[in-house]
Design goal:
Ubiquitin-like (UB roll); single chain; Creatine Kinase, Chain A, domain 2; alpha+beta; 12 helices; 6-stranded mixed sheet; 14 strands
């Protein structure tokens, strides 16, 4: 890098360092679950390096720290990848005790070919497919999460955090400003950290669960937004721990409360004209709009294993409990899995309400865009618009992880969009996680089977 490389950083990173001496740079990359992996290096060393190495085995690791047998014919030799920084992602780590930056890296092999199962590379692959057709995808994610009491015992049920009033966070107070005020100190830190990192929050609201909040981000480039969600998960966790509580992005952390989603809004622009392809010259809904919805309906069942990636994810899909149970679509209808929000023609968009907040943001957005992309290619029509309460309809999505993986494994069209090698590795790692789960004896089994069967 050049001697004055700090002057080339994004504006927010430069502002963070103004009048200060940079101590350390965290070189990070997302693994399959979305955990930040990497190395922390002194700033002086980072200034001299153009890449660093990590073993490819980080993409074979399960959420428990185990390993899927996904290394291929050469065996588990842990070949080094070449990780190159994307300096446009440089941002502060404002919770640290010194002056630290984070930089997201991209993974390549020795031939400079992108590693096919690195989540950021997969999302870029999907975005590039849109660009090759003359389309520019635009997304806006919504992040739901819970602030909960510290939990040091996995056998103990998760409980809501203690609010500022000294009472546990109350449930069923959706959109209550008083409820938001209960978490004021945590939210203040979230805003401060986000500002230091250069992120624009579109709003924070109280959701329906006890201690459940939602943060909306402004629409934009899918890779940039996935980077922000990746960063935000860490940011929010750090803000919570400053105030003796945890932030959790589990899809269903508390049994009787609503689950946490990462709703994804999509629109597609024509690169040449900049116009939304979902809106016609007179503002009407175009064939492309309906084709995109049809693609979501046809292919989202195959992608459930990516947007609901854990056994806990499927506990969110409960009838009449704020999460969809099918793939009906409707206008301004929050009971359907696919929703068309109220908007003018220029901002017409399609919302995927099935994705859980526990998904890797790169993979969740990639899977969702891939389904819409296939719909645009196949040019089919969706089912008839659903009117009324979609919870009265039939369930038509997989109900558990094993079934979701079976459907994913058979989805060759989806694999071609995401990359066959990614599909192979992802399935192996997720099946390994599922097998690990099946070895655990649950409290329910001990309570009801120990003396009764």
């Amino acid at each position: 890098m050049t001697a004055d490389w700090i002057k080339t950083l994004p504006r927010a990173a430069q502002d963070f360092l103004e009048g200060r001496r940079l101590d350390e740079v965290e070189c990070i990359i997302s693994d399959l679950p979305g955990i930040a992996r990497g190395k922390a290096v002194p700033a002086s060393k980072f200034a001299r390096q153009t890449y660093f190495h990590l073993p490819d085995s980080i993409f074979y690791q399960t959420i428990t720290g185990g390993w899927g047998e996904a290394a291929g014919d050469e065996g588990f030799i842990e070949r080094d990848m070449i990780l190159k920084p994307d300096m446009t992602t440089a941002t502060a780590a404002p919770w640290t005790g010194d002056w630290t930056l984070q930089v997201i890296h991209d993974a390549y092999d020795r031939k400079n070919t992108p590693i096919p199962y690195s989540p950021r590379n997969i999302l870029r692959r999907v975005v590039d497919l849109y660009h090759e057709k003359g389309w520019k995808p635009v997304v806006a994610p919504e992040m739901e999460f819970y602030l909960v009491a510290r939990n040091l015992d996995p056998a103990k049920a998760i409980e809501p955090m203690m609010g500022r009033s000294g009472r546990p966070a109350a449930a069923r107070q959706a959109y209550s400003m008083t409820a938001v005020d209960e978490f004021g100190p945590v939210i203040d830190d979230i805003y401060d950290f986000a500002e230091a990192q250069g992120f624009e929050i579109d709003g924070i609201t109280q959701e329906g669960g006890a201690g459940q909040l939602e943060i909306n981000l402004r629409h934009g480039n899918p890779i940039k937004l996935a980077d922000e969600v990746f960063y935000f998960k860490r940011l929010i966790r750090e803000a919570a721990m400053r105030h003796n509580c945890y932030a959790t992005f589990m899809a269903k952390p508390i049994a009787d409360e609503p689950g946490s989603a990462m709703h994804i809004h999509h629109s597609v622009l024509d690169i040449e004209t900049g116009k939304n392809i979902f809106a016609g010259p007179q503002g009407g809904e175009t064939d492309a709009f309906f084709h995109f919805i049809a693609g979501m309906q046809r292919h989202l069942p195959s992608a459930i294993a990516m947007i609901a990636p854990y056994v806990n994810s499927f506990r969110r899909y409960v009838r009449d409990h704020a999460a969809p149970i099918n793939l009906e679509w409707g206008r301004d209808n929050r009971t359907t899995g696919i929703r068309v929000p109220l908007s003018g023609p220029e901002s017409r968009r399609v919302e995927n309400r099935l994705a859980g907040m526990d998904c890797n943001p790169y993979l969740g957005i990639a899977a969702s865009l891939a389904c819409g992309y296939l719909g645009l290619l196949e040019e089919e029509r969706p089912d008839k618009q659903f009117k009324g309460d979609a919870y009265e309809g039939e369930e038509d999505i997989p109900s558990e992880m094993g079934a979701a993986l079976d459907i994913f494994d058979a989805a060759k069209k989806l694999h071609e969009v995401l990359g066959p090698e990614f599909a192979r590795v992802y399935s192996i790692v997720k099946r390994t996680e599922y097998e690990e789960f099946l070895q655990v004896i649950s409290p329910w089994e001990r309570e009801h089977l120990l003396l009764n069967v």
